[in-house]
Amino acid sequence: MAMKILLFHPFLKSMGGAEKLIYEYSKRSKHKIYILSWIYIKNKTFSFEAVYSILGNKLESIARSYFGRLLFLPLSLLKFPEDFDVLVISTSGISILSLLGKKINIPKLAYVHTPLRAAYPLDIIWNINYRFRQLKKYFYKSAYTIYNFLEKNAWSKLDFAVFNSYLSRKRALDKKLIDLDKTAIIYPGANLESLYYKEPENYFLYVARFNIIKRQHILIKAFAKFSKKYDYKLILVGGLENKRYFIRLLKLIKKYNLENRVKLLYNLPYQKIIELYSKALAFVHIPFMEDFGIAPLEAAAAGKYIINVYPSGNYEILKDFPGIYWIKERFYDEKMVEEVYKALEYFIKNKDELIEKGKENRKKIKELDLSWDRFAKEMDKIIETRIV
User: One GO molecular function term (predicted)?
Assistant: First the structure.
């Protein structure tokens, strides 16, 4: 019998991975999904059905701000309607606080894209080193101290949590937020059927939203050193999430006289991105300890050699693929620049062989079921057997 599920995700504001997961699950679940959000920017995200948004498209700029999202926390005091069979909270950290101070008389499950990265010990050190300067550091320290105080209590209200990777779950277990026997891993789906291979042109490709956590600046610095010896191009593609960081990248390109070598392309239609995958010489993916990461799966489906970094959620799927150069996370920018440079040079010195290994990635990924139908079935099964 189909159930009524209330799925809460606070910000539906982009074509990002979390919104994509909610969109695909709500379409494919055999249960009826009703979505609740604080912010819903219809023209910048997916075409959801059955959405109730408290503020609609108001305060968009604040919703996109790193600290600004904290201003929405008073909305977490609102009660959830209980004429549903299950409450599912889609969380990257903030939305879990909506469980505080409430007695909710229906089963409660979280799908965890990540526990709040900004409050995780390694990320705190990284943020203080690279994201925040001067007074923002002190505000940040106060914010994560308060958050850590509230976080454990909020997590204690959950009946079960599903994580998008073992890495993501490890963050929660490290902080003792939940018992292991109340957890499961379900990898997100990926639309890989439309990816295809074409003979490579002379560019490296990186697809990720423009944000410091994706570390496009490291790739540009490594490519500047690489370009002194080798004549290739670099294309960076992504959503324009952080304009200040995007401007920083433009200045970096100018500083290294790379205007004719490096292109920044933003908000491209997906068909154009697929075309760029198909013709890329190789794919580079170097975010800081990403909880999952769809882009390397797409690059593998396009038959491309991949320069990747671990630990990451996608490492759990791709670790045995033949056409991947794995960089162990070095944490510090200057060390990562050197590692990325070595990887680029290694690829060029062994180009013909590694292009062939990239083609093997395409064969390997076809052996896996990474479909959204698989994801929806696994989520439905957890809800039906573990918490209801």
Answer: glycosyltransferase activity
